[in-house]
Amino acid sequence: MNKYDDITDKINGCAMKVHNTLGNGFQEVIYQRCLAIELETAGLSFARELEQDIFYSGIHVGTRRADFIVENDIVVELKAIINLEDVHLAQAKNYVVAYDKPIGLLINFGSTSLQFKKVFNPKYPQNQNSQKQDLQALRMSRDISAGKSSKSINPLNPDSDK
Question: What's the Cα-to-Cα distance from 100 to each of 79, 84, 124, 126, 148, rounded to whole Å?
Fold first, then answer.
């Protein structure tokens, strides 16, 4: 288990509380303000909209603000859109690298179900195992949904064999 799993679980729990309370349909800034309240209630330290310089070939080319930096290690980027796309995931990955943080969360409040994506900075070796575990879990869930599981799953009672 990764040392960041407990923190990311808390962040996800805070986001779920906000989404369960508000639902979808608000602007991103509303979710950002509500998530800040929940993060504070959960006892997590964070900075909101922390500006970061972006460099290209050693030359300053601009700045970018991540929605949150939590516990000084986790970049949290929020969206309030119907569905996450690859461009949003790429943006979150870029922030993790630009801010030199080991891990990030991309959270979308705009869908009817809350969406989470975890992103890793390849520069941090401790992320290698977590990234492999997340990929294995994703493959397993895809296999199950495609009917490739050797075990029959009852959706009404997932713990039963039939």
Answer: 21, 23, 9, 14, 39
Q: How many beta carbons lie within 10 A of that of residue 153, not counting itself?
A: 13
Please, what is the average pLDDT of the chain? 83
How far, in Å, are 31, 69, 96 from residue 54 at the CA level? 26, 16, 12
Domains of the chain: 5-123 (3.90.320.10)
Give the Å distances, CA to CA, from 6 to 70, 112, 123, 154.
12, 25, 21, 29
What would the pLDDT profile of 82-112 be if each residue is shown by its tens digit?
A: 999 999 999 999 999 989 999 999 999 999 9
Judge whether 103 and 120 are in contact, CB under 8 Å: yes
